[in-house]
Amino acid sequence: MLHLRLIVPPGRTEAVVGLIGSTVGTTHLAVLPGAALDPRGDLVMCDVAREAGDQLLHGLRELRIDRDGSIAVENIDLSLSERADAAEEEAPGEPADAVIWEQLAEATHEESTLTITYAAFMIVATMIAACGVVLDNAILIVGAMAVGPEFGPLAGVCTGVVQRRPRLAWRSLTALLIGFGAAIAATTVFSLVMDALGLFEASMLEDPRPNTAFIWNPDPLSLVVAVLAGVVGMLSLTSAKSGALVGVAISVTTVPAGANAAVALSYGDFAQMWGSMEQLLLNLGGIMVAGTLTLYGWKLLWSTQRGRWRRPAPPASRS
């Protein structure tokens, strides 16, 4: 269930209450006239089944409540109410399958903004991966994949394309490119320092590395894994099952490929560097294409359900 807290201009309260009342899966409606001071208006609260949340939010935005008032949405972790149970039964579909597009856009906006923290995570993750590829240590590779924050911008690109929000898509793509560029540059310097300290050697890069050789040898299976990761990543976001993101991070070679490219560049091994860059671009492209198509599929699926989100109007009384 979702809890909505609305600040509504007084002249539109009746329309908002009517919209809530006509939307299936809503309950616990409360109206406090004149309770809001900034902006001034009526305070309207209700609970709505997650399956019907996106449709209700769409209707509220058509009433311009987001412009002239306020719309706040919270997840309800526990609701002990028979009315809430009945509302969830009334709403078609399952909560885990519901997509709240505004919530998705907000989440990807936060995760795809180029910040110092994001850049620091990218750089440190790539440095950890550099140690992993040089030592042929799968544990370090997995750790770097889990630490890397690159899935946020990838999801932002997909969401921006599907929602036709070019600013979100462009900001996410910028964060992705600058993040990887900064991480590869910093890791190249890191590799040179480690070499100067005697901790890295060129022979370590050239020796057989059975655990990490796939990182600079892209093949059709790399694309298959990237596509599957993109699908799972989008499903995890739209269904609010964020735990699956860890699995996505482990499944693809993005940060490790950037790390191997940086180490190879520091030693002038351009064959490995270009192979790593191909692997990196293959995975990034596969995730973005698969994620975008997955979101388009969800959008098409839920658009066919629009007529089911309204309660039938009561029959007209006969005089």
TrEMBL record:
InterPro entries assigned = DUF389
| One Pfam family cited in the UniProt record for this chain | DUF389
Superkingdom in the source lineage: Bacteria
Q: What is this protein called?
A: DUF389 domain-containing protein
Q: Does the keyword Transmembrane apply?
A: yes
The answer on whether this UniProt entry bears the keyword Methyltransferase reads no
* Record field: transmembrane: 116-135, 174-200, 220-237, 244-268, 280-301
Q: Which keywords appear in this protein's UniProt record, sorted alphabetically?
A: Membrane, Transmembrane, Transmembrane helix
Signal peptide positions are none
